[in-house]
């Protein structure tokens, strides 16, 4: 009993000493709390700096993408900062790995808007193979006053007055394939299919000024297939624009406008044909053609400037009938006049997917010539043309491989269509 009484104070003293040793001194506890608070502050600052590094890295990647996409392969972009930024983040940080992927995606998307504009205006040599489906609607009408008679007493017209009106609607589907053979060479194949509807109206039918005769004809079929090549002479660098040389040939695979069967609508009493229309609409020019042109593209952030010019030469070709009189058949040769085309415009890249373009284009053609068998070449009066138009376009990247291109053309001269509306969907393989 006495022994138990002596051990109990000793045990209590030992327990008290152990408990006192486990509790930190008041000064040490305050220091520990300060260290913990400082550590938490450093962690918060570190997370904030990591976020800032992510944002800066993505901005730098996107800027480098835009510069490298516009400077061409000849320019050397600055070294990317992704490895340096990644070294400041622990390997286990999955959030920064996703930001690097986003930066790469932003880099590709930043180039996409510029690439789509270059694809439409000249050629894009970085795309290996592209299939393009296009659909174009064109509206055309032309009125002409015809006087057949003479003036009596310099004031009174004696004869027939007729008003001729031609209204035409055409729908063209074009399948194009573009193959990037090398970094500076692209081959193109265009195969069109046309459907045309034309309404002919003629006033003064039967000798009556108020009478109007009307006839409608249709036609569809494959158009003239063309094969062309684009060669990059100079890449864009500094003040120098990207310059591309284009050469191609067009084969007369469509239905020629010569030698068609005619439908006589009205004859005079002396059997003179007053109104006749073709039974079927042509789908091609009927002759071989070769073209040579040059196009230039220059980026000036946020705008993209482009221009083109070229010449189309038509080769003579013989036909079994080139006479416009349905009652006669006269074989001979046809030579279309040469054509000079040029245009210029500007495009604005709103973001990585969308761009808007406005341009002017003109095509001036000289008079055609015909030669009957055994005769001399004779120029066809009224066969020259000047077709100018104002074009508005929108390009939108649907996804990584597909782009939607919309183009509205407004005719500025009588020889140009009233308006054209085109939709193109290039698909990159």
Return the CATH architecture of the domain at 105-142 and 169-198 and 221-266 and 280-428.
Beta Barrel
Gyration radius, in Å: 38 Å
- Binned, the helix content reads 10-25%
CATH superfamily membership of the domain at 105-142 and 169-198 and 221-266 and 280-428? Autotransporter beta-domain
Order of helices and strands: HHHHEEEEEEEEEEEEEEEEEEE
From the structure above, extract its key features.
429 residues, alpha+beta, Lipocalin, 47% strand, elongated, disordered N terminus
Structure description:
The chain has 429 residues and is of the alpha+beta class. It has a domain of 263 residues: Lipocalin (Beta Barrel), CATH 2.40.128.130. The protein is 24% helix and 47% strand. A twelve-stranded antiparallel β-barrel has the order 1-2-3-5-6-9-10-13-14-17-18-19. Strands 11-12-15-16 form a four-stranded antiparallel β-sheet, with no helix packed on it. Strands 7-8 form a two-stranded antiparallel sheet. A hairpin with a 5-residue loop joins strand 7 and strand 8. Helix 2 packs parallel to helix 4. The radius of gyration is 38 Å and the shape is elongated. 21% of the residues are buried. The N terminus is likely disordered.
List the helices and strands and how they pair.
Layout: H1 2-22, H2 26-71, H3 82-87, H4 94-121, E1 129-152, E2 156-182, E3 185-203, E4 212-222, E5 226-234, E6 242-250, E7 262-267, E8 273-278, E9 289-300, E10 303-314, E11 317-319, E12 332-335, E13 339-349, E14 354-365, E15 369-372, E16 378-379, E17 385-397, E18 403-411, E19 419-428
Antiparallel strand pairs: 1-2, 1-19, 2-3, 3-4, 3-5, 5-6, 6-9, 7-8, 9-10, 10-13, 11-12, 12-15, 13-14, 14-17, 15-16, 17-18, 18-19
Helix pairs in contact: 2-4
